[in-house]
Amino acid sequence: MNTILKNHAMIADNLAVNEAGHLTFAGQDTVLLAEKYGTPLYLLDEDRIRARCREYRVAMQKHFGEGAMPLYAGKALCITHIYRIMREENMGIDVVSSGEVYTAYHAGFPMERAYFHGNNKTDDDIAFAMECGVGTFVCDSIDELEAINRIGAQKGICQKILLRLTPGIDPHTHKAIATGKVDSKFGAAIETGQAEELVSAALSLANIELVGYHCHIGSQIFEVKPFVDAARIMLSFVAHMESAHGFRAKILNLGGGMGVRYLNEHPTISYEKNIALIAEELKAMAARLSMPLPTILMEPGRSIVADSGMTLYRAGSVKQIPGFKNYVSVDGGMPDNPRFALYESPYTVVSAARMNEEADFVCTVAGRCCESGDLIQEGVSLPMPRRGDVIAVLTTGAYNYSMASNYNRIPRPPMVALSQGEEKLILRRETFRDLVQNDL
Ligand code: LLP
After folding, report:
1. Pocket around ligand 1: residues whose beta carbon is below 6 Å from it?
2. pLDDT (tens digit, 9 = 90+) per residue, 108-148?
3. CATH superfamily of domain region 3-45+307-436
4. How many C-beta neighbours within 10 Å does residue 237 have?
């Protein structure tokens, strides 16, 4: 095996190269899948998603105790099929809009295991989520607490609530996805006393049952320390509120955010090891404070689905600008993956049918939109691309389809789930008719 193959294989163990020199994903030939379903095409390794759910669930129950549960953060990939998987894997879910609530409900997900997030739920959102039986709302403002209380009273519901707090942690990630700092639009800061004000307000409202606290410090975080620090701050807040208000939190939700490998140089994270470290710290602290550990929840999104996804394109124009750079354009781009345009996110890109060839053509992989920022990645090494080559972008399971748009009136790609050697279309390709269906 040459170094190129070795390097690709190292990114995730669901990648390999077959005898034809084609990239395989979850054991299936990606070039054949591109031929069968057309491009652009999203692939999903369903068995790996299930394995990740189990890794979180088993590790959390082992280290935090029986009631601990991971909630899959659907914003990473929200589609009916994923909620069926989550139901079967006994996961909880984090939902952030009525659209996500509807999708989960429609998939038959048991909604008492749904946690409804969002920094600005409308009255309609609140009413709809209550009608769908959403178990717990996560709330971070007095306005919203009052709205939930009022709507709960009209419906005869005493709504379970977690309060979203900001522990004031800098998680060392991209600024657009760091959320646990005091100046964040999310959460009520512990540091400023606003968190405590929310606790008093929640305890005073008749149609609200305060069950605990939530924090989420950010996304794509490789270190474990920020999580441990946040957990510690949250547990000491639990203790403080018990002594100040006589309220003992039953639940502590530590959010999501663990990183995944997009590039070879990224570290491999053991989620189980991180969970064990956080648990060790929390258990020692609970013992010191002579209090029981609340039920611990976590909300992984990216680390459940990212490396279970891949996008296949076909190369089109190849443009060489002597003395400057080279471009290869593909038949998708920012409409199906806006993450480079938004965050300059790194991705590994390969030529799926030519894995054994020397990758010595350094280029920028560009999308097809009328926008110069529509790029997938810069500084990619490929074998000299030819029109029609299948180009695979790895690790696209999280925040790709869920952030997709129809910019330039481009239909969104289909998605095929791969499981135990079988394949299943779980999202059909949008048609031109779909594009005009809301036009009056
Ligand atoms: N819980 C809450 C409250 C969140 O806001 C998020 C992500 C998660 C859980 C899941 O975090 P994860 O485990 O996926 O890191 N669009 C950006 C990511 C935004 C993340 C927003 N919140 C991206 O493409 O990188």
Report:
1. 73, 75-76, 94, 117, 177, 179, 216, 219-220, 255-257, 299-303, 339, 399
2. 999 999 999 999 999 999 999 999 999 999 999 999 999 99
3. Lyase, Ornithine Decarboxylase; Chain A, domain 1 (2.40.37.10)
4. 21
